[in-house]
Amino acid sequence: MNIPGNGLGRFGLAGLTLAGMAAIWWGITRYGGMLNINTRGEQVLAFVLVCLALVFVFYLPAMSRRVKESLYRRQSQQASVLPGEEGRVALTPPHHITVGEIRQTLRYQYGRAWSCKVRILLIIGSVRDVEQLTPKLTQELWQEDQGTLLLWGGDPGAAVDNAWFTALRKLRYRPADGMVWVTSGFDGVLTTMNRTKPRLTPDEMDSVSHSLKLRFEALGWKLPLYVWSLYEGGNEKNGRITQPVGCLLPAGCTPQIVAEQFTALASLLIEQGIQQICGQPQHNFLLALADQLTRKPETVTEPLSVLLNPYRPQPLAGVVFSEASVEAGRSVRHHWGRDNRWETIPDSVLWLPAGLRPRKQGVNWMRGMSVAAAALMLLWAASMTVSFIANRHLVAIAQEQVRLASAEKQPLAVRLHALSALQKTLSQLEYRSQHGAPWYLRAGLSQNDDLLAALFPRYGEMAQPLLRDAAAHHLEEQLTAFVQLPPDSPLREKMTKTAYGQLKQYLMLTRPEKMDAAWFATTRMLDWPQRSGIADAVWQGSGPSLLAFYAASLASHPQWRLPVDDGLVSQVRTRLIRQMGQRNSESTLYQKMLAQVANQYADMRLADMTADTDASRLFSTDEVVPGMFTRQAWEQAVQPAIEKVVAERRDEMDWVLSDTKQTAAQSTLPEALRARLAERYFADFSGAWLDFLNSLRWQRAATLSDAIDQLTLMADVRQSPLVALMNTLSVQGRTGQTGEAIADSLVKSARQLFNRDNPPVIDQRSGARGPLDATFGPVLALLDNRDGGTPTSRLSLQTFLTRVTQVRLRLQQVTNATDPQAMTRLLAQTVFQGKAVDLTETRDYGSLVAAGLGQEWSGFGQTLFVRPMEQAWQQVLTPAAESLNAQWRSAVVEDWNSAFGGRYPFKNTSSEVSLPLLAKYLNSETGRIARFLQTRLNGVLHKEGSRWMADSINAQGLTFNPAFLQAMNTLSHLSDVAFANGEAGLHFALRPGTADGVMQTELVIDSQKLVYMNQMPVWRRFSWPADTEAPGASLSWISTRAGTRQYGDFPGAWGWIRLLDKAVVSAYPGTSSSWSLSWKAPDGLLLNYTLRTEAGEGPLALLVLRNFTLPETIFSVRASAERVPLTDDIPGEEGY
């Protein structure tokens, strides 16, 4: 627990608090993004909330304790254990309240800077002695007057009041300026009884010294100690003279020094004492004290010597002698009367020597920081001195090197030697600029970067004539000599390669971005082993480093480039191009490389990929994979061939022989060529394998037993051609990956195949990424099973084979049954009814696997993962479809024809269909047709709105009769319009229209009349069929030329539909719910009406039943059997 004022101190606690807050802020700004704390406002709010939470947690125990105390007190008062009011008990205020009162009083009197204006003294001693010096201090605990605050420190003979001292430590940073021990134990003057008081014994002084030590520890500070020797004298008040009497002691005081101080004090006391008694004889205190210090100084020095013990000394700062106070007491609380006896102590605490000043107990951080700061300043001053000398020396050396290298009168050897030394200096400065200067060059005076910036321009000015121009002149001479060779000179062929290198060196000087420093220096020295004006040994020793440094610096200083001689460069390029012929191209290099390895390896056929398995029973192909596109060919031939081509190529030097400025310099590097050649190879590698794998065709199975045999072979992990092929793809698909060779992969696959109890026989090794991951990645992911034995959690070959085994077992149960045909139909009908089975789930899983392989692998995925299940499903569906067609005829079609055949509206006869019976068939929920479709075809046929749609998944392999779907959709729509409530019922409105020559029309529908006599037409609502005993419909009119005539009279429930059948119907413009009806009378007049429906076409919808025939089949069985090709084509989509 950190108590304010302990070893850390107030500033230490504040420092820890600030450090903690800084750590919280750093954590919020660093990791706040994980909690979506991003903006500055959110960070500040989070910081405040965390700080408040920590403060709450810190004070939570205290608050909990306070609540428990209050609750206990309230419960005790209610139980009469404690009295209801305790105000009668005089409680002593807590010490922290007292300290707060002191601080508030001093701030009121002296302002906020009271701690600098008030001197605080801690008074200790027996209560009797202290009360004689400062009355009531022991009761009031503190008293203040004239800028001096006295605090009660307790009796040395009593235990330390730790709570009081702990509270005082919060008064200010330094709780007190000094400690005053008030004692009458040094009183050697005779008392009224003519007896001398007993002197303080060494044991008592040891106790006092120990008590002082305990108080210093409780206070946290070691304060200067003042001993106030109190003497009992006369109590006369009138004319009493008070003055400061005593002596201040130096730091490290000894008993001898104390005795000398008292001797000197005695002579002064005698002089002043005589002066006092001359005026007032009763005031003899000074003379009596002088007498004691003269005749019996040991009464004072011996007790004090215990406090000056060199092994445990106390900071004794002074001794004061006085009589008891007479008029010091005041009636005002916490106030006392300060007289001139107190002038010595408050003033002396400001000027104490260093050894006696108040010192904080424990580690003195401020002093340590001061010493550390002083040491740091000294060290920094020494570092600056060393740095100044070292930097000055470095600058002087560089200046001398520049002077020698630039002196044209100096010999060439001297100038080159100085230039070489300057290069070394520049290299050293560059290294220091990147990695930091040595410690002796730093201290704020480092000139490394400034000197480097100043030297490089000077180096460039000197290196250009000495190195660049000289090398260029020598190269120009050599290239000119090459150009001037006669066309038929044999030297042209011999010097082509040399001239190419010389031209490359020359162009490097003109194009800094193309400079290769190491190659340039080495090649240049081979062509320039001798230089005039300098010894050969000296030039060959220093030349490479000179040229290499200049060449390396040229790229960062392009302004040093050599002005190019375009004429010379053009002539040399022309000669070289003619001599070297057509430059090598990347395509040529690639084809050349393939030609070298094409005949080294045999082509891979399907039998080679499936090892000892019989692949022809499952799939086959006539295609092959060229032998050069195998992993063995890559590792043993292709990769070394590419390395050889790259090593011998000249395409990376195209910039030497061409004026084209390449935008990407990296494209000419050997690594770039190697990458491009490898990329082209692996592109062809992927294409060859994709062409081969997509050419695979699944073998057709004539019967269900043949399909079961194929599934058995495919799922047998030890004999499956599919597993063997996938293992081959696992090896070949990792071609180009680093780390595992082909032999390691084969050994690992064999070990997994034979040496494990439950082996995943497919190689599931996870390796590094390779160039074929983009193509073979889906297949490798299908083979990989690194998720801890949970292959069903994602697509995998093992899961697919497990599902195939389940399907094979289910189909074997079907074929082994007593009635295989019945079991087959039952299996298919389970799917028709919307229930999933192993066969459909595996078919869906295979389609998902094929789709997951991607479009590039579509043929491969369809052949190996979709075709087997489709073929097995087709063998199951064919008998089931025929059975379902028979059920449809017997359950629906035959009854339909029996009930409605030869009746209107299906046939134009006088006999009519019963509307209630028709409703039993057409009801959308409980109708016979709807129930048959929902119970028998729920898995392959579903309803979307009013239309029946074939399921694209479960209906694979089936071909719906188009007439069946069309008939179901027609009846479904009719049911929604005319049989919405389960029974036949329509509500519609008719409005008559005017016509030329027509005076009146009368329309009757099931006894509901609409008479119109050319007045304002209005809508008339009708219901069909209406509840009447005379159903039917009739239409009559009266023309301007004749009386009433009848257009038609159609009795029966379908009379209104028969009348509509004779009308001319057209859509009413502007609306989709109205139609125009027109009947043409025999006299040529038009009888016009407007029909407005409530649902769809209203009664017009029933007209679709004219000559309607219900299809007798649901599926086209023959079409289904002939639709799915299994060996030739890969269909894109199914038809229905």
From TrEMBL:
Name the domain of life this protein comes from. Answer: Bacteria
Domain Type VI secretion system IcmF C-terminal residues, every copy: 988-1094
Occurrences of domain Type VI secretion system component TssM1 helical (ranges) = 879-984
One Pfam family recorded for the sequence: IcmF-related
- Which residues are in the IcmF-related domain? 416-732
Keyword annotations of the record: Membrane, Transmembrane, Transmembrane helix
Transmembrane segment boundaries? 7-28, 44-64, 369-390
The record ties this protein, via InterPro entries, to: IcmF-rel, IcmF_C, T6SS_TssM-like, TssM1_hel
The protein, known as: Type VI secretion protein VasK
